[in-house]
Amino acid sequence: MQEDVLRALVEEVRTGRTERRDFVARLAGLGLSAPFASLLLASAGVAQAQPAPYKPTRRGGGGPLKLLFWQGPTLLNPHFGIGAKDQEGSALFYEPLARYDPDGNLVPVLAAEIPSRANGGIAADGRSTTWKLKKGVRWHDGKPFTADDVVFNFTYATDIATAATTFAQYEGIAAATRIDAETVRFEFQKPTPLWHRSVGVALVPKHLFETFGGTRSRDAPTNLRPIGTGPYRFVDFKPGDLLRGEINRDYHATNRPHFDTVELKGGGDATSAARAVLQTGEYDFGWNLQVEDEVLTRMEASRRGRVVACPSGDVEMIQVNHADPWTEVDGERSSPKSRHPVLSDGAVREALTLLLDRKSIQGFVYGRAGVATPNFLNNPARLNSPNVKNEFSVERANAVLDAAGWKRGSDGVREKDGRKLKLLFQTSINSVRQKVQNIYKQSCAKAGIELELKGVTAAVFFSSDLANPDTYGKFLADLQMYAVAGRPPDPGVFMQWFLSSQATGKANKWQSVNRGRWRNDDYDRLYRASEVELDPVKRTALLIEMNDLICREHAVIPVVYRPSMYGLGRQLVAPLSGWDTALSSIAEWYAEA
Amino acid sequence: MAGSTPASATVDPLAAAAPPVAVPVAARPRASVSPWAEAWRRFKRHRLAVLGLVVLVLMILLVAFGPLVWRVQINDIDFSARLKTPTATHPFGTDDLGQDIFARVLYGGRISLAVGLSAMLMAMVVGVTIGAVAGISRGAVDAALMWLTDLFLSLPLLPLLLVLTYLFRDALKGAFGPEVGVFMLIVVVIGAFGWMPVARLVRAQFFSLREKEFVEAARALGASVPRQVVRHILPNSLGPVIVAGTINVAAAIIAESTLSFLGLGFPPDIPTWGRILSDAKEYLDIAPHWAIFPGTAIFLAVLCINFVGDGLRDALDPRRVL
Amino acid sequence: MGHYLLRRLLIALPALLGISVVLFTVLALAPGDPFSEMALNPNVPPEVQANLRKQFGLDDPIWQRYFRWLLAMLQGDWGFSFISRIDVDKLILSRVPVTLAIIGASQVLALVIALPVGIYSAARPYSWFDRIASTLAFIGFSLPTFFTGLLLILLFSIKLDWLPFVYRADLAATGWDWWVQQIRQSAMPVAVLGFFQAAGWTRYVRSATLDVIRLDYVTTARSKGLHERAVILKHVVRNAMIPVVTLVALTLPQVFGGAVVTEQIFRVPGIGSLLIDAIQRNDLPVVMAVTFVLSCLVIAFNLIADVLYGWLDPRISYR
User: Fold this and answer.
1) Cα–Cα distance between C315 and C25 in angstroms, integer?
2) In this prediction, does ipTM exceed 0.85?
3) What value does the mean pLDDT take over residues A374-380?
4) What pLDDT is recorded for position B9?
5) Helix axis angle, B157-176 relative to C2-29, nearest 10°?
6) CA dihedral defined by C245, C251, C252, C256, rounded to 10 degrees?
7) SS3 for A557?
8) What is the Cα–Cα distance from A83 to A92, expressed in whole angstroms?
9) Residue C174 has pLDDT above 80, yes or no
10) Which CATH class name applies to B113-270?
11) Strand order in the sheet with A479-484
């Protein structure tokens, strides 16, 4: 979609000739997420939609809130969170400057308002943003929350010795300066469109952490006894098992929170967590229910709870190995210097894309938890882009392969130039993924492609252990499938996954992100342009072009995009967002009587 | 504490003690019977054992040749026939992808039975050997072997498995082909974790048995230590070993399912019994047939092995007169 | 006996040391990375992960890491969990009470079931009682615990709604009410584990008692006119206990780290789930500490069993 078309569309939304909702859907059809569309509109000065009303008229009185996470948090410092679940535990006590609501809009939490061009928050030259902080916010120990705390979090996280996992969220920021007690300015190294990357970092108090910077960071006692600004105060923590909090009577938002105590229990598996919420009602909230949708629907029949699917940026995809895992180049297999003898043939990739029965996978395996998508950047609706089709056709796949010269051998497997179409397909151990593998294997067999299936324990598959051959970084297979977490709604970071310079290999210890080892000069050019493009509309056009390129060339095969599935019990009302942690909005939760 | 009675029920102690009498009584020569034939005869008299053996052999034949007769593929995905109860086309019903459970149970039975039986045998052989050696010797050898046992008892299964798989999988794959290689790895690993109880049980039996009179008598007659062990002590210590054997088969089949659940065993699309059970567990309330068949299969296998074991013990027990 | 005991105790220490070396090596060699989840997070640059690995000494040679661990252990410092940054001993201690309560109770239940049932079955072999008990025992150990656990949950929690199935270590109630709640929530995990254990043990007890009950001296006792109960309890049981003692000694240490499946299903925060969690995340200090304690328990209980043999059967001598 061209830039001027986009510009015109934005204008239409602003003047009210087009519904905001339609605009978001159109952009989604082109592969851009809802929050990205929202940010685009916000930057053009289009007002946000109003949030759902909060009903309770006083603070507290809601009784206990019981949350069930089948992976319990083990850490309570948001700067050390290793996976998404660790951020959940800290979300009870710590808060960020702003959070993402279910539609992907930025909602201020500790900030007074979201910066924009209009209110002067975003500088015209794109080199800095200024945040005004909310007045009257106090830490749980009574000390006031000021700009010093915000600056401290920046220095704390960006110190390499601290080894904070939030390091990358401050990437590109040259300095954080306190303007006055309630104003902070972030200055960027170069003009960047990604001014909001650091927004979601939950903030810790300077006065308790400043003596524990650098290598002493892990010794801080507050690591395990959090003092934050959040709606609940810390009571007790047993790592991996139980986390308890009680209401913060001095919370900075009126009439919030609703519940008097909160309890977060961890352990077990997703299915029994779903049962505890939906069937026995022992818990009010179940996190990340990665269970077959059919099983969930059955559990909902007891009418004690319901399942909510929140759109998010997570995409389950099949990564194609563009390098050759079966030949060693310079002592390295799947070297970025090599090209895959079979998969570099575009016809094969096209056939593989045609053989993925997304509809059945969505219908019979994922259900609500996985919505079929042909786009890499998530796509909740059927396509608009004429180039990206969501088609499943064994006949067409056969036709494409025949046309490209792949003839069936005596065993039914196609071959050409002495190479057989036999591919090794690996993924992590997960019953849903294994089913998808089975389905794919069967349809590929109908087109003369033989798939050998392999499952690797998740802890090993996703590890960065240098010596292990089964990691997804090493990618010693032809195809691999896993989900990409699309948590930051801006796809800019995401798109690095196709940059040639990011090709994973021995040189960067298999740590970088282009695990498919894809190389395309056009793509690289587009990406570089998008990195520095400040005009959001122009940048969006570039991103759409990049998505089209990936999908046209079949660099990856997206399977389904995965909304976050949560179980809610009782009459719990919770504005859950797939773009942020589940508990990011916990101050807004209440139970209808 | 076995073996407090005379070694042979046919010897009359009084006659043996009396001085030889002049009148020679022409004894009818007894037909010589090999000990194995004798054992087999006694086994046959144990009805349940024979039944168990027959059913076991039937099961083995079924899983070995069944897939050649029942031609339905194990991973024929058919979304229109999901979770169907048993019918003529699908005698055991279908699972949630429409795959035929009967075919899967037959195919998986090969692996489950093979793994169960071989892991059990391996654990038995290793356990009995180590237990016997430790039981009959004392001091340093016993201490060393018990240290080894304690070591294996302390080892956590999972990390050890990961290490072994990572080290040997490719080598085995190269030498024996992917399926046989994985099979051997699993048998070795499961067997390696089953021998310790057997060893300790056998050793305990040996401690009490080696002090018994009949062993002393054998020693007095000049029997060497190995002979004492093999002919006298070992047959009497088989009781707990047999029980351990049956429990080990079930444990091995279940352990295999846990392994494949963790990605360390057979590839995920191979339907071993334990794996089918694991897949079926979430659908117990709407499709119990999916779990009932593999569960029954495991139960039957265990039952048969147990009866065979009972029969074996009675057959080999030198004290019993059948 | 005293001499033997002393000798065994002296050997125990180097034995323990040897085991710890092997354990440590196996754990250090096992593939996987405690910080693997970072790799999934696009926000985390690889340098951070590499830095963390260096901080925890994960890239040092194995022997170096072992000695560091050993020295710390000798000084009473059990190390620091990689994942949750809590002292390992605090972590373990916080889970011991729950483990003892649930897993310990299930072992007791298993013993309480297995002994009477096994002995009675052996006293009346092939009777109705024996057949039923044996069949139940076969079913018991043929079915994996994840299966029976789920069955019980479906029946008692979901269909009948009698029992909660998520275990809570911190019950708010006090006094009598606390006991009622505790029993309600422990009933299922204790039952699942206890029956599984009891199934196996019943068979062993039965077999061991059968071996003894056919012996001559039992017939003698009976012919002396002793009451059947006295015969069984005074003469048979003690002599049949040797295999049982062996078994109980073998399974008791499993309290400390076995029962993983049951703990997972019912969310019992015991040491088993701590161990499996730590293993799956390659949290080496925790795994090492738990398995080390496990090996101490194994050695201790096997020693106790050996001593008990001598008491049960006076003819067993240790020279």
Assistant:
1) 41
2) no
3) 49
4) 46
5) 60
6) 170
7) strand
8) 16
9) no
10) mainly alpha
11) A371-372, A556-561, A315-320, A479-484, A422-428, A450-456
Closest residue on chain B to A433 (Cα):
B268
C 116-155 → A contacts, CB under 8 A: 153
Report the residue of B282, B284, B286 to disrupt the A interface, i.e. the one with the largest count of A CBs within 10 Å.
Answer: B282
Decide: A356 and A392 in contact? Cβ < 8 Å: yes
- Which of A103-117, A375-389, C43-57 is the most confident on average? A103-117
Instruction: Give the tokens for residue A26.
Output: 């159109």
Q: Is the CB of A464 less than 8 angstroms away from the CB of C47?
A: no
Give the chains touching C; criterion: ≥3 Cβ pairs < 8 Å. A, B
Residues B117 and B98: beta-carbon distance below 8 Å? no
Q: Which residues pair with A372 in a beta bridge?
A: A560
Residues A443, A444, A445, CA angle at the centre, nearest 5°? 90
Angle C145-C146-C151 from CA coordinates, rounded to 5°: 95
- Token pair of C104 as six digits: 């310990």
Banded pLDDT at A235 (limits 50, 70, 90)? very high
DSSP letter at A422?
A: E
Helix B238-261 vs helix B101-136: angle between axes, to the nearest 10 degrees?
A: 130
Query: Bridge-partner residues for A415, per DSSP?
Result: A407, A420
Q: What is the rounded average pLDDT of the residues C250-271?
A: 78
SS3 of residue A99 by DSSP: strand
Q: Does the beta carbon of B257 lie under 8 angstroms from any beta carbon of chain C?
A: yes
Residue tagged 């101050």 (tokens): A587
pLDDT < 50: residue spans in chain B: 1-9, 11-18, 22, 322
**DSSP letter assigned to residue B86:** P
Q: Does B141 touch chain C (CB under 8 A)?
A: no
Rounded (10°) angle between helices B101-136 and B195-209: 40
Q: Where does residue A410 rank: exposed (0-12), middle (13-18), buried (19+ CB within 10 A)?
A: exposed
Report the Cα A250 to chain-centroid distance in Å: 33
Asked whether A414 and A408 are in contact (CB, 8 A), the reply is: yes
Per domain, the residue ranges of chain B are 113-270
**Taking Cα atoms as reference points, which of A40, A97, A38, A542 lies closest to residue A311?**
A38
Do residue C31 and residue A488 have CB atoms under 8 angstroms apart? no
Give the CA-trace dihedral at C258, C260, C263, C264, to 10 degrees.
Answer: 170
Q: Where are the alpha helices (DSSP H) in A447-556?
A: 458-461, 521-532, 536-552
Would you say C197 and C107 are in contact if contact means Cβ atoms under 8 Å apart? yes
- Contact at CB, A271 and B96, closer than 8 angstroms: no
**DSSP assignments along A172-221, one per residue:** TEEEEEEEETTEEEEEESS--S-TTTTTTPPP--HHHHGGG-GGGGGG-G
How far are the Cα atoms of A337, A447, A452 from residue A347, in angstroms, in the given order? 22, 13, 20
Rounded Cα gap, residues C239 and C248, in angstroms: 16
Report residue C303 as tokens. 């020693």
